[in-house]
Amino acid sequence: MPRQLPLPLLPREAVEIEPIPDSSNAVARTWLGDPTSWPAGRLALHGPEGSGKSALLAQAARRLGLRRLSGPALRGVPEGAPTALDDADCAAEEPALFHLINACAAGGHLLLMAGREPPSRWEAHLPDLASRLRATAAAPLGQPTDHLLRALLARHFARRQLRVEPAVQDWLLARLPREAAALAEAAARLDRAALADGGGVTRALARVCLAGLIDGSGEGAPEEDDDSVAGSGVASASMGTLL
Hints:
Layout: H1 26-32, E1 42-46, H2 53-64, E2 67-70, E3 83-86, H3 94-107, E4 111-115, H4 127-134, E5 137-140, H5 146-159, H6 166-175, H7 180-197, H8 203-209
Parallel strand pairs: 1-4, 1-5, 2-3, 3-4
Helix pairs in contact: 5-7
InterPro entries: P-loop_NTPase
Protein name: Chromosomal replication initiator DnaA
Region (Disordered): 217-243
């Protein structure tokens, strides 16, 4: 029997932001709300980068008592246990993923996975692994909506106790990549820059500290005063209900 190796636990700091209910993740939240509906106790979340897969997986892992593992570090012959596997489509070793699926099924344990594509499209050279992936229920996540991005950016600022005028937030949302990681990075940079500058967050400050992150395609247009309302292309919306 192949020897078992220590399991690669996913660092808690990798995903700490709670997911925000949104139409883009409604289907996935429905599936996650009823684990008894998962065929063979197995479910895979899938969606584009920045759609919130990791946040949903982490929240479900805490609620359901699943150990959290990382696909890129998955090796050996994992023991069966209730498991949440992030980046499962990037598993370091196909046999390890195959053994994990089998071990969870044999023990009647829940297995929640996340990847960019549906599991039926994950690269699998082992025929038996490909068969099990095709039989895995898939819950899609769409691109984040304007509402979700606005609420997420506001949450980052609130957690840092960073006051940012709505007009500046509009300006940022019109230029930042539509990804959760980009919003988190922007908030961290602005927080450091505002502390160093000793002032508030303005568009002028954002242009400097977010260089390389924001879209500069509109920078040639005449600028309004930072206190004026900036046209963002993002419809005004309240933060909505956050988890």
